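I would like you to help me understand the sequence and structure tokens below and explain how sequence relates to structure.
___
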Amino acid sequence: VTWSNGNIFRSVTLLAATWCEQNGIENGFDQDKALTKENLEDFMSMLAFTKYQGQFDTRIRGLGLELYVSQVQNTELKSPKVSKNIPTVAQFTQGEVITFAANAVQTMGKDENIVVLLEGREQTVNYVRTPHRFTLTLSDDTLIGKRRAAQRLMAAAIKQLPEPVNDAKVLEVFDTQLKTMVDEIEVQPSTTNNYLFCLKWFSGANNTATAK
């Protein structure tokens, strides 16, 4: 079982962004209104760590949402309304997410057939008790953006690919989805430049592959 604290932060962010939409917040997100103590308690109560189809998973249930993290971690949880607001939400929810993660690890640890790999930022996982710790570093920071772009591209393309699938159709769908994603990011000024650069990098790489 692989666990990501980032997915829990993203789940809370999705709930906060959805709350803003449902309450008619202008400009899409208002941290002062959305991230009150009462709202955060409500958002965390909408998350549950449980078994789904024989596997441990985090369920998001509330505000009209009924989702499992394993099914939406590369789609809804990587959408612009989540990605651009997660840094803000993370500032207010460190304690809540750490507590949720620690409880989940204990739950999984009780199963003798499961080895738990907890992945997250060092500042958060330091609060989880374990004698086993590993720190991973990247020589190229843009790899983070490239990975995120590839995850979103793959998830979006799979939904659009018709049967039967061939190389030409895959490239066509990739081109369409890349253009859509770049246009989507360019109208969001708060989105990280690194992510936009990586999307354009994928576009250039894909064009090169098409030319070949």
The CA atoms of residues 170 and 207 lie 13 Å apart. The beta strands are 2-4, 47-52, 55-62, 65-68, 117-119.
